[in-house]
Amino acid sequence: MKMQDTIEESLDNQQLVWGLQLNLELVLNENVKLAKKMDMENLIPLISHIQQSKRIFMISAGRSGFAMRSAAMRFMHLGLQVYVVGDTTTPAIGKDDLLIAASGSGTTSGIVRAAEKASAVGAKLVALTADADSALAKLADHVVYIPAAGKEEHGSGKSAQYAGSLFEQFLLLLMDAVFQSLWKLDGTPADELYKRHANLE
Predict the structure, then answer these.
(1) pTM to 2 decimals?
(2) pLDDT tens per residue across span 6-37
(3) Which positions make up the signal peptide (predicted)?
(4) Beta-carbon count within 10 A of 127 CB
(5) Sequence-separated (6 or more) residues with CB below 8 Å from residue 118
(6) How far apart are the first and last CA of the chain?
(7) Where are the beta strands (DSSP E) in 103-180?
């Protein structure tokens, strides 16, 4: 390899490193700014519903679905009876249960249908959405409004990231904060929670 080629490759790699650093800072800064816009008191009813419900059902789709599955895992570690809608072992929801539904647009058809069914049987519904006037929000007993860009809000100024990335990232962080708060209220030692970690991996 010629020295000139080596220098050019080194410069290209350095530019890539700079770009990665800038983009990581962009992602982190957008989430911090969004956190400052959140009404944290609006999360108290969500925590109360979780504490008071017999069972917790969680539903979302796409990347938001991964965030909700992560939250379901942590709730299980707390000893809560939690199910992810769509899994083959998820039972029927009932009137003493809670459905936590996340959709940036609030219009995802499968999520709205599940919310309608949950409401019809008397279950409580908490919606996490970027559209407080959406179909999902109108069905909910409580709405957690996340003022992030929707996946089709290109150039809205709410986020420089692609599609609904900010909503999806923040959903994961927010639900981790909810778990952390529930854990502190519960007071169970970390060693006890760890006993519920999967051991068939």
Answers:
(1) 0.91
(2) 656 776 888 989 999 999 999 999 999 999 99
(3) none
(4) 28
(5) 57, 93, 97, 99, 124, 125
(6) 46
(7) 124-129, 142-145
